[in-house]
Write a structure and sequence with these properties.
Elements lengths: L12 E7 L9 H15 L3 E8 L11 H9 L9 E4 L2 H4 L3 H13 L3 E4 L10 H32 L12 E7 L6 E7 L48
Parallel strand pairs: 1-2, 1-3, 3-4
Antiparallel strand pairs: 5-6
Length: 238
Amino acid sequence: MTKRKCPFQAGDRVWAYCRDSGGDEQQDSVVSQRRAIEEFCHRHSLLLVHVFADEARPGSTTVGREGLEDLFFLTRQEPQPVEGIIFWSLSRLARDQLDSQFMKADLRRRGYVLHSMTDDVPDGEFALVVEALIDWKNERYLKDLSRDVKRGLHDLAEQGFAPGGFPPRGYISWRRSRSASNETESRASPVDGSPTQSWLPGCSKRSGGGSHSPPGGRGGCPGDNHVPVQSAAPLRCA
């Protein structure tokens, strides 16, 4: 299998589409994609007319992606405004198999050449088969990520830690500093003083009960300066 080369001719007019899913680790993702595409266009003497972008938008849906909507609106112009569209990778277009295949088919039927800078797609009739496998892999990544996130949150809950959001009914949450580091951990514990709960050392026991009362909650320890737990930001899928 030979990786395809630049499918455009020198002087061709092209658009580009960039997307990231948001999060601290991806704050410069659209910027870095654009920079790489600009370098590609300069190297192959292409005229980059416009870069469409969606920041902090998941690839699992097309809803709320204004950059993508603008791109498809303009592709319906006559005569055809550009020769092709460049992506950093096919996953930037979509991570849903049906969405990805439908959008690529629609663009190609209108005469646009599509080029992914990172996906190893060969020339020839076998290219569509390879693209279909790449679309499957991109969607599989989302499903695996969702499964792993749910497993991690479930494991935290089983250990008594609040994975974020509001605590369950009958529970309160507070922040506890770890002795070995400056990190903090959030626990959700029952307010009824059940024997299975675990409170911070040094807190007074509730009168008549055999368990400690939660710091910062009902019957908490005087003088404890506990910061209320903020709801953790939900994990994002790329």
